[in-house]
Design a protein that fits this description.
single chain; de novo design (two linked rop proteins)
Length: about 200
Amino acid sequence: MKAVIVLIVIAVIVFACFGSYIGAKNQMVAKNEAVKSAWSQVDIVLQRRADLIPNLVETVKGFAVQEQTVFGDIARARSALLSANTPQGKIAANQQLDGALGRLLVVVENYPQLRSNENFLRLQDELAGTENRIAVERKRYNDTLQDYNTYIGQFPNSVWANFAGFHRNDAYFAAAEGSRQAPKVDFGGVRPGATATPSPAH
């Protein structure tokens, strides 16, 4: 009888552990897929901004063709963003692009005719809307990723995660230091009597 009882207890423990493992694994799969889905939305808005940038740069070139350093920085960062194949690569390239776009908007302040150009204003509005969307999707992605990491880090999920091959993902999408405060562009024109002087190439 004692042997039977021991076997029954062992069977119950094994069954409970197996049930816990299956339940945890299913949750990990669901949360991992949620992370992928959230990232895909980030990727869409990053692509949207990348598609806007060439037209924006071409418009600025019509007024500030000498700002070749800034244009080159933007082109390289955009190319890196489009060629990146992982969230980490895209996040790093996006930070470079943030900095380059910030420098472009600073350059724009020196060209009052550009600031009143209808095409530039339209592109600037579209870019601003896309930036807002990036911020929304970035937060959603980070929250989803945090939920996944918290879940697989809790016991006994941490044990089951190792068995099932799930690992912590630290590809959080943090804003670049230089982009925490977006550059402000004054579209009100220059003060009466003031003369805007093009800045030297950066």
